[in-house]
Amino acid sequence: MKTIVSRTSLARLVGSALVIAPALLACNKDQGSSASTNSSAAATAPAPAKPEADTIKIGLLLPETKTARYEAADRPFFVARLKEICPKCEVLYQNADQKTDKQQAQAESLLINGIKVLVIDPVDAKAVAGVIAKAKAQNVAVLAYERLAQGPADYHVSFDNEQVGRLQAQALLDALKKGGDPKRGKIVMINGSPTDPNAGSYKKGAHAVLDGQVNIGMEYDTPDWSPDKAQDEMQQAITAIGKKNIIGVYCANDGTASGAIAAMKGAGFADLPPVTGQDAELAAVQRIVAGQQYMTVYKAIKKEAIVAADMAYAMAQGKPYTEQKTVMINNGTKDIPSVLLAADVVTKENVKDTVIKDGFHAAPKVCEGTFAAACKTAGIL
């Protein structure tokens, strides 16, 4: 059966449509609708721009707290610089307390949290290769900070670590020569952690200077850079060599130097032989002023942290880092563009012109308490 529509009804329908249509168009326009029944028009229309994220997440993983520099210098300098150049950047920070499995779990957590860049100073340079590969698979850029991590990292920033070892060894050798024949007795070498590639570089640089020039009585690689273990090692060396035969101690950093010095004090050394160090920790600088530690290596950690922050920001934007000269260093996986910074020797004679002049330590802090008299003698106050 056909449906018959009268002319009057048809006219009413057409009239209603003419009234409703403009209203619908106006409604769509007011709501900002871009809907269309034309499939070809929809296909050629430009995609709407994605809103920019409110924050750019940067992960920072540091290895331990026994070495004072990480919490006192590296972390605050990095965070301050990133806040300065990228107000929208958020630093997600964790410290591994010298535990490899803990650091790997921290890295996994940061990847879940949506970081764009992972800045990592590895507890174990080999063990982090897998997590770095996972980060790269998720399009997360990776910066190896201080220690050259294995795996497909994008950049690396550190110091010329073999040169650091040479600086330490040369300072020790010069001090020994002032007392006569550098082979008149024996030295003890207390190196850094065997899981830290930097420790191997310091050791290599030191041996390049010392081999053939001195008699090495005992040598140790110190797990976890532990001052307590360094103290045990030094006690073993004193027992094996005899305290009268020890004329110098090569220590790879200030923490191990503190352990070695504690052992020698406990053994009743009338005069401490020259002891090396590294990191220019406040306690080490005070020991130097007081004549208990011969030297330390001052690495401009603030500059290192600033370079790292600048690198991280460039990486977060998908841009190459171009502000400092880079050299290529192979980490066992690939050649990594690396910035290697220079370091300086600090002795009692130049404390004022190095760590204090740079603002790394304030003179009143170095010279507080029992160190005031020694500071006056050294011309610091």
From TrEMBL:
Cellular compartments annotated: Cell envelope
Pfam assignment, any one: Peripla_BP_4
Keyword tags: Signal
Principal subcellular localisation of the protein: other
Record domain Periplasmic binding protein: where: 58-319
Family to which this protein belongs: Belongs to the bacterial solute-binding protein 2 family.
Name this polypeptide is given: Sugar ABC transporter substrate-binding protein
